[in-house]
């Protein structure tokens, strides 16, 4: 990750490497991308909460997930609060908006606007499955 910021959950590079699998580390800590249509949550319709796989911060809820057919889980809005941060990304010869976990700075994916999806925000948070952990919503 190129930009150095301070986050509430801070670990050394070695600690992240010990905690995360090689694929998780490549995506979460090195801003990689998993191959399209290979992630475990791409087509999942299970109700629940999607949290950061690195630190456990709540990021998205299943009620904002939709099928965009892009190859990665898509959400039209993050969960309530300031748990995601948006950063200009000028890599790969284009200008995009990177989505990171605001608690630990891990790379989650990118957000796109104005693509014509029938969602309340007209935004598509395109998130790597390997960046997330889904837990069922408690019955109450």
Automatic annotation (TrEMBL):
Protein name as catalogued: peptide-methionine (R)-S-oxide reductase
GO molecular function, one term: metal ion binding
Start and end residues of each MsrB domain: 13-137
Catalytic activity field: L-methionyl-[protein] + [thioredoxin]-disulfide + H2O = L-methionyl-(R)-S-oxide-[protein] + [thioredoxin]-dithiol
This protein's record includes keyword Zinc: yes
GO cellular component, one term: cytoplasm
EC number, UniProt record: 1.8.4.12
Cofactor: Zn(2+)
Keywords on record: Metal-binding, Oxidoreductase, Zinc
Residue ranges crossing the lipid bilayer per the database entry: none
Database matches in InterPro entries: Met_Sox_Rdtase_MsrB (IPR028427), Met_Sox_Rdtase_MsrB_dom (IPR002579), Mss4-like_sf (IPR011057)
Native organism: Luteipulveratus halotolerans
Keyword Transmembrane helix: no
GO BP term, example: protein repair
């Amino acid at each position: 990750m190129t930009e150095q910021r301070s986050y509430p959950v801070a670990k050394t590079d070695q600690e992240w490497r010990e905690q995360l699998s090689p694929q998780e580390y490549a995506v979460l800590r090195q801003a990689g991308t998993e191959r399209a249509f290979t992630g475990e949550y791409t087509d999942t319709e299970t109700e629940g909460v999607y949290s950061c796989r690195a630190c456990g911060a709540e990021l998205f809820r299943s009620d904002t997930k939709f099928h965009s057919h892009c190859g990665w889980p898509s959400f039209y809005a993050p969960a309530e609060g300031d748990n995601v941060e948006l950063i200009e990304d000028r890599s790969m010869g284009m200008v995009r908006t990177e989505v990171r976990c605001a608690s630990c700075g891990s790379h989650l994916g990118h957000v796109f606007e104005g693509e014509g999806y029938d969602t309340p925000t007209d935004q598509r948070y395109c998130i790597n499955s390997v960046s997330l952990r889904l837990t069922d919503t408690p019955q109450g």
